[in-house]
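Worked Example 4.2. Consider the chain below.
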Amino acid sequence: MSEGCHPQRLASVPSRGPEAVCSPRTRFPLLLVLLLATVGAAGSCPAQNVAGTADANLREVVIEAQREAADAEITRRVQTALTEDPWIFAEHVTVTTRNGVVRIEGIVHDTAELFRILRLAHKIPGTRRVVDATEILHNDPEGG
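Applying the procedure from the previous section yields the following structure tokens:
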């Protein structure tokens, strides 16, 4: 084996002889790769030095949000939308919000009113999901 060849390079190519790996044509690219790896590892690039010092000066930022205020605002907006709608009897409907999930409870008169309530609740900004916990009161005098 000649002095310019790396032992791991020889071990990675077992089917060829050492003279094929250590020929003068392969020595120069091998030396160039080793030189570039050494220069890159030393961190001689000014941009790398600046990035390293910038990372050392950064501090971790933690943001803690107050979700209760947002939930109260969503509840207020849903209740206002239900009260202002002429097709909804909102006095029998209770709205609660937790983590953006709006829960509708109470009594509705028919499915059209229920779907209208759910649609209005979905339209309020900040609403993640709407949970239906209502009961439909059938006021059919014939009992159907």
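The chain has a mean pLDDT of 76. Residues 24-42 form the longest helix (19 residues). Compare this with Example 4.1 before moving on.
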